[in-house]
Write a structure and sequence with these properties.
- This protein is of the alpha/beta class.
- About 45% of the residues lie in helices and about 15% in strands.
- The chain has a single domain, classed as TIM Barrel.
- Strands 3-4-7-8-9-10-12-13 form an eight-stranded parallel beta barrel, surrounded by four helices.
- The longest helix is centred in the first third of the chain and has 20 residues.
Length: about 350
C-alpha cells in the first residue's frame, strides 16, 4: 500500500522527462508510437496485471443510465478512434472510453500534419477530420475485446458522425447506420455534430437538423428491448440563444444527456506566438484554454434544463481541481483528452485520488 504513492510519483516524473523528448516529434506519430508500446506491454498477462495495479485509482463509483462507472473520469472521443486500445485504456483506470468518432464508411481524414501541440498553453490544435476505419471495423474490435475480456468493467461509448461526402440533408441516415451497427457493442451513444473539422457539420447543431437526427434515432432506440442512452456533444462556441435551443430540444426529445464541450475555433488569449498559431491554421483548439468556457456552458445547461439532463464535462481537465470544477458546474462524469497527453498515464489515478 505504501509503495503506490512512490511509484505514482516516479511514473509522473519519468513521463515528464519522456514527454520532453516525444514533443520533438510529430504529434500524431508519437500518439501511435506511445500506444503501441503500451499495447506491447499489456499483451503479456503478468505485466498487464502489474500495470493495472500501479495505475489503479481509488474507486469512486457513479451510477448513471443504469450503468455503473467505477469512477467519474473517462477518455473523450478522438483518442481511440477505432477501438484499438480498449485493453490498454482499461489498465490505465479510465471508467469509460468513447471510441470514434465512427462514421459508416472508412475515411482518411484531412491531410497531415493535422495535430499540433501548443506547450505554452498546454493545448492542442487538431483538424483530424473524422479519420477512422469505419463502423464495421469498430464493431469487430469491440466484439473481440468483449469476448477476450468478459470481466472488464470499463464502459464504452460510441461517438458517431457522418461521412465527409454525405450531404447534410442525408446526415441522419449515417447516424442511423452507425447506431444499428454498433448497438450491441457499445453501452451508450454520443451524436457528434460539433467537430469543426468536417465542412458544414456544425450546421447540424441547428434545431431542425437535430430534430430529424434524434427523431430517427429515438424511434429506433425505443423499439429495442433494452434501449441505449443517446447523448449529444456540443461546441463551446454556441451563443446563449443556440444553447437555449439545445436545452429545449434535449427536454423535448428526451435526450439521455449532453457532452459539453467539443473543441473551440477561438484563438483568444493564447500565449503561443500569433505567427505560429496562424501557421498551424484551422482546427479545433483543446486543453487549458477551453476549460473556462466549457465550464460556463456546463453551468448554463444545468440551469436551463433545471438539472433534468445528465451532463458530461469535457474541456481543459488536467487536475482534480479541474474535474471538481466540472462536477460542481453540473457534470456527472468528466472526460479528459489533452490533459492525458500533457499529464501522462497517471492522470486518472491523480484526479480520482485528489477528488
Amino acid at each position: 500500500m505504501h509503495q503506490q504513492p512512490f511509484i505514482s510519483f516516479y511514473l509522473r516524473n519519468m513521463y515528464a522527462t519522456l514527454r520532453n523528448i516525444l514533443f520533438r516529434y510529430d504529434a500524431e506519430q508519437v500518439h501511435h508510437f506511445a500506444m503501441h508500446r503500451l499495447q506491447n506491454a499489456c499483451s503479456f498477462g503478468p505485466m498487464r496485471s502489474l500495470l493495472a495495479g500501479y495505475f489503479a485509482p481509488k474507486s469512486k463509483p457513479v451510477s448513471l443510465w443504469g450503468l455503473q462507472f467505477r469512477n467519474p473520469i473517462g477518455l473523450a472521443a478522438g483518442f481511440d478512434k477505432n477501438a484499438s486500445y480498449l485493453r490498454e485504456l482499461d489498465v490505465l483506470g479510465f471508467s469509460h472510453v468513447e471510441i470514434g468518432t465512427v462514421t459508416p464508411l472508412a475515411q482518411p481524414g484531412n491531410d497531415q500534419p493535422r495535430l499540433f501541440r501548443l506547450p505554452a498553453d498546454q493545448a492542442l490544435i487538431n483538424r483530424m477530420g473524422f479519420n477512422n476505419e469505419g463502423m464495421d471495423a469498430a464493431k469487430r474490435r469491440l466484439a473481440d475485446w468483449r469476448n477476450r475480456y468478459p470481466d472488464a468493467t470499463m464502459i464504452v461509448g460510441g461517438n458517431i458522425g457522418k461521412n465527409k461526402l454525405t450531404p447534410n440533408e442525408e446526415a441522419a441516415s449515417d447516424y442511423v447506420k452507425c447506431f444499428n451497427t454498433l448497438f450491441n457493442e457499445v453501452d451508450y451513444f454520443v451524436v457528434n455534430v460539433s467537430s469543426p473539422n468536417t465542412p458544414g457539420l456544425r450546421e447540424l447543431q441547428e434545431r431542425p437538423a437535430l430534430e430529424k437526427i434524434f427523431g430517427e434515432l429515438q424511434e429506433l432506440n425505443n423499439g429495442k428491448a433494452q434501449p441505449k442512452p443517446i447523448l449529444l456533444k456540443i461546441a463551446p462556441d454556441l451563443t446563449h440563444a443556440q444553447l437555449d435551443e439545445i436545452c429545449g430540444l434535449s427536454l423535448q426529445m428526451q435526450l439521455s444527456g449532453l457532452v459539453a464541450t467539443n473543441t473551440t475555433i477561438s484563438r483568444e488569449g493564447l500565449l503561443t506566438d500569433r505567427n505560429e498559431v496562424e501557421t498551424i491554421g484551422a482546427g479545433g483548439l483543446s486543453g487549458k484554454p477551453v476549460r473556462k468556457r466549457s465550464t460556463e456552458v456546463l453551468r448554463y445547461l444545468r440551469q436551463h434544463t433545471n438539472g433534468k439532463i445528465p451532463l458530461i464535462g469535457s474541456g481543459g481537465v488536467f487536475t482534480a481541481k479541474d474535474a471538481k470544477e466540472k462536477i460542481e458546474a453540473g457534470a456527472s462524469l468528466v472526460q479528459v483528452w489533452t490533459g492525458f497527453v500533457y499529464e501522462g498515464p497517471t492522470i486518472v489515478q491523480k484526479i480520482c485520488n485528489g477528488l
